[in-house]
Fold:
Amino acid sequence: MMNRLKNWKKKFSRKNILLHFILLVISAILSIGYAVYMFYIFYTAATTPVDTGNAWADAGAELGTYIALRAMLPFFICEVIAAVANFIGALSKNWIVAFIAAGLYLLSIILFPSAFLNVGVQLILCIIAGVLILTKK
Structure:
C-alpha cells in the first residue's frame, strides 16, 4: 500500500511539473498571437490613407487613429512583457515569475478594460500555473 502511494506521488509530481509548463506556454502562445494581431491592426490603421474629400474630416480621422494607438500602446507593451515572462516562468519553474506575468495581465486589463475577454484566459492560466508551481515545493 505504501509503495503504491509513493508511486502515485511520483506520477502526480511529474504531471504537475509538465502541467504548469504547458499552461504557461499556452498562455505565452495566446499572448504572442494576440500581440501579432494587435500589431497588424495598429499597422493597418496607421498606414491606411484616409481620403473622404474633406481635409478636415481626413485630419480628424487620422488624429483619432493616432489617439487610439497611443491609448492602446501601454496595453500592448504589458501584453508582450507578460508573454516573455510566461516563457521565462515556464523554463525556470519559478512561481514568482508566473505571478508577475499574471500581474502584468491584470495591469493590461486595467489599462484597457474592453480587452478583458482576450487577456482573461492568459491571466487565469498564469494563476493556475503559479499555484501549481507553488504547491509543488
In short: The radius of gyration is 21 Å. The chain has four helices and no strands.
